[in-house]
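Memo to structure team: turn this sequence into structure tokens by end of day. - J.P.
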Amino acid sequence: MLWPFNHFRKPRLAPRGTIEAIYGMIVTQAREPLFYQDLDYQGFGVPDTVNGRFDLLLLHLWMVLRRLRQNEAGGAELSQALFDHFCADMDANLREMGVGDLAVPKRMQAFGEAFYGRSAAYDLALTDSSEALALALCRNILEGGQSENARRLAAYTEAAIAQLGQLDDAALLAASWRFPSPRQAQGSAKP
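Reply from structure team:
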């Protein structure tokens, strides 16, 4: 008789290189200078602060995790590994900034709450309308102002979600894709 020991095996995780590649694309896109430029310079007006950069990172992470949830072949494992990589990166950044060991867990909890709160707000807004998404982005990323920039950021977000949605699972899991250029969304914002 064969004993079913395979249930004691750890689940197969996504390759570390894939997770790092996808996370690297998220971070690179969130650091795109155009997001931080003013409207006068064809930018989106996101505050170039630690909070502004963190919020853009969360936006891009949310978009990718949203797409990964739709993937039936390994998407759940990859999305969990990607989120874990994000948490490890945030922990390392806090320690690099000199946050003490006792304060790191509280800050990490605040990061988790920020991520889940924004994710829920963006998911709800996305099911409502483009204007609702713009309001959610305005409130969470643009500090409650700049409604025109919020509409442009919502148009970019919808374009990125659409592009991610068109990827086949193999391309998504192989990290052989890119976010759309923020400039491509410039003309698609509704006045």
